[in-house]
Amino acid sequence: MVLKVTDLTDEHGIYLVKIARQAIEKFVIDKTKIKPPKDVPNILWEKAGVFVTINKLIKEHEELRGCIGYIMPIKPLIEATIDVAIAAATEDPRFPPVSSQELDTILVEVTVLTPPQKVEVKSPDEYLDKIKIGRDGLLLKYGMFSGTLLPQVPVEYGWDVETFLDHLCLKAGLPLRCWKNPDVEIFSYQGIMWKEISPRGKISRVKL
Length: 208
Hints:
Blueprint: H1 10-30, E1 49-58, E2 61-70, H2 77-90, E3 106-113, E4 117-118, H3 127-130, E5 137-142, E6 145-149, H4 152-157, H5 161-171, E7 185-189, E8 191-196, E9 203-206
Antiparallel strand pairs: 1-2, 1-3, 3-8, 4-7, 5-6, 5-7, 8-9
Helix pairs in contact: 1-2
């Protein structure tokens, strides 16, 4: 059964961030993958897409340290969260694996996603009116190429929709303005995000 993301409470989100943190620390320290605890709320056994983002805190400034996820709801949310938390810490090709010395300086963030829906347009220029910054994450597909950017990314960088689409093209390994090609498919999805405010500290929902 696919999870209805709006049914998640902040209690569920806080639980997921704590599980993600545990999964990261356990794997980084002794290369062991944790199992879902016995007290997992039933709703978290439903399937959902999820991303785990790791930021490193450097003099009160956050720098991306890893981000991996499942766009599609292919696994129960609790299992998917554990999987992508470990992958974000150890498999993001942009970064070396997180070391045990870094665990006191990282912030863990979990974004639970709705299933992607194709943005239907008669002309690519209509994307500029149909996509909303702060609401939509985007997935681009074109032949063998694909790429995604989470809803929080354009907010963090101060992008407008056109810039968001341009960077989505780059993320997919395609040239700027590729989204103007009628054969390129754009899908949108929404997300609910929770993150640590300080390493191992308070966890709260992030409003975009």
